[in-house]
Write a structure and sequence with these properties.
It comes from Kaistella gelatinilytica. It holds the Pfam family Adenine_glyco. This is DNA-3-methyladenine glycosylase I. By secondary structure, this protein is mainly α. It has a single domain, classed as Hypothetical protein, domain 2 (Endonuclease III, domain 1, Orthogonal Bundle). Helix content is 53%, strand content 2%. It contains nine helices and two strands; from the N terminus they run αααααααβααβ. A two-stranded parallel sheet has the order 1-2. The chain is globular, with a radius of gyration of 16 Å. The relative contact order is 0.18.
Length: 184
């Protein structure tokens, strides 16, 4: 019997593994939320496949996505990152990552955890959609609009509504597996 997955995940083994093991699975720990915020913000304007291929390089370059360390990166570290061919060398996105690490910690101080903050936008419940085709999966929703607007108000960067919706899908706040997908 063939395994039926969401069509987008059939590009290669990397995509299949990501789809099967991570995408749409509920995340509650702040470290994973931050990792996906970094990856999603770098993905803006690029393909997710490009980011997944470079994920391990990002992990190494950004100190295992340790937001406490990243929040204190110096200009020397920025220059080191700019010379790292293993990641996306975009100064604005690198600076945004440092900024977002600082804002991330502010949210933690206010809410106790980033997880509590972000899950509040969906009342702590996974939104389960039942799309039949990829065309039925939205790029943004009213919730991603509201979350993006709130993140921007808090000073986060490179987290527009489309990026935020992708983040919600990646971290399982939204389940957009197609109805015929075995992982729905």
């Amino acid at each position: 019997m063939d395994i039926v997955r969401c069509g987008w995940s059939e590009k290669d083994d990397l995509y299949r593994k990501y789809h099967d093991e991570e995408w749409g699975k509920a995340v509650y720990d702040d470290e994973t939320f931050f990792e996906f915020l970094v990856l999603e913000s770098f993905q803006a304007g690029l393909s997710w496949h490009t980011i997944l291929k470079k994920r391990e390089n990002f992990k190494e370059a950004f100190d295992n996505f340790n937001y406490k360390k990243i929040a204190n990166y110096s200009e020397d570290k920025v220059e080191e990152l700019m010379s790292n061919a293993g990641i996306i060398r975009n100064r604005l996105k690198i600076l945004a990552t440092i900024n977002n690490a600082q804002r991330f910690q502010e949210v933690q101080k206010e809410f106790g955890t980033f997880s509590i903050y972000i899950w509040s936008f969906v009342a702590g419940k996974i939104i389960v959609n039942h799309p039949k085709t990829l065309k039925e999966v939205p790029a943004t929703t009213e919730i991603s609009d509201a979350l993006s607007k709130d993140l921007k108000k808090r000073g986060f960067k490179f987290l527009g509504s489309t990026v935020v919706y992708a983040h919600m899908q990646a971290t399982g706040m939204v389940n957009d597996h197609l109805v015929d997908c075995i992982f729905k």
